[in-house]
Task: inverse folding
């Protein structure tokens, strides 16, 4: 045991959000109700550990409905949401489906549809090829919606003068970057219609604020989450911008840089909205084997949001 003490600043809130909890519960309760296997279109949430554990109890993950081998089995749509064409296809080929789309993503879908019905050209601020973006863009005809990813995209964006314009955003973006992009759009198009309430979800916002609060105190910062998790990747960016250049994304199978960690006086830990708390505890326990640890949990807000699961699964 090394005699020096390492201070771990633990960001709170961190880890599972209400939408992720709900989606995982939907898979588990569907397996209880219908028996295994149950198909899930796309990873239910972007976390390898969660996906591997659901596979063990009977979930089969597929990317498209035509990958389903036994069409008598139900399929679950992931928390990220799906284009309208997916439930339409399921109905056509007579596959029962359960929709685990996060209610906050569904809210963005409704806003997108509202803008379309009212004759607006819609801008979606988000990341190309992310399943949430594919789902939102698939709510209305493709010629009615454009994707903007960066400030540069926003500066270059053009539209005919007589066209009404509105915007929505992906729920898991960087709060600061999205504010900058929306500011550019508002300056260019003073009459642009934004969402009645911010689209970036409460969990993304809270986790970014918690990381900001402690990043400048840390020699190293670790975000526990999977590579394909948008909100986890944003936390890495936020920690770096907020004063800790040595920030890493740690997936559950990734080797911990323990020899670097034990040289530090202060490290920060947080986890993405799809990462279970067990992975945080596991990381801290690995560090405790090598060095004395003092935990400083920095809580910026208490989260008590809960989303109900569909009635037919209760």
Result:
């Amino acid at each position: 045991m090394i005699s020096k003490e390492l201070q771990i600043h633990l960001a709170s809130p961190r880890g599972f959000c209400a939408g992720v909890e709900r989606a995982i519960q939907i898979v588990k309760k569907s397996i209880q109700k219908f028996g295994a296997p149950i198909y899930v279109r796309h990873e239910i949430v972007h976390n390898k550990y969660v996906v591997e554990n659901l596979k063990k109890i009977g979930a089969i993950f597929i990317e498209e409905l035509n990958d389903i081998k036994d069409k008598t089995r139900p399929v679950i749509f992931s928390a990220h949401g799906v284009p309208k064409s997916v439930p339409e296809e399921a109905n056509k080929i007579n596959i029962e489906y359960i929709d685990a789309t996060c209610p906050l993503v569904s809210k963005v879908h409704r806003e997108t549809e509202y803008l379309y019905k009212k004759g607006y050209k819609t801008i979606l601020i988000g990341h190309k090829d992310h399943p949430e973006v594919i789902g939102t863009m698939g709510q209305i005809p493709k010629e009615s919606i454009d994707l903007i990813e960066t400030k540069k995209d926003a500066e270059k964006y053009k539209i005919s003068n007589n066209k009404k314009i509105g915007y929505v955003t992906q729920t898991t973006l960087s709060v600061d970057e999205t504010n900058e992009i929306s500011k550019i759009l508002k300056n260019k198009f003073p009459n642009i219609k934004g969402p009645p309430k911010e689209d970036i979800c409460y969990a993304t916002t809270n986790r970014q604020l918690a990381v900001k609060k402690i990043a400048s105190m840390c020699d190293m910062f670790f975000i526990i989450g999977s590579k394909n998790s948008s909100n986890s990747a944003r936390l890495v960016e936020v920690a770096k911008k907020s004063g800790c250049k040595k920030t890493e994304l740690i997936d559950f199978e990734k080797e911990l840089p323990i020899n670097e960690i034990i040289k530090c006086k202060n490290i920060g830990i947080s986890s993405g909205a799809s990462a279970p708390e067990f992975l945080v505890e596991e990381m801290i326990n690995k560090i405790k084997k090598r060095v004395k640890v003092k935990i400083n949990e920095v809580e910026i807000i208490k989260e008590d949001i809960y989303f109900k699961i569909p009635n037919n699964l209760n």
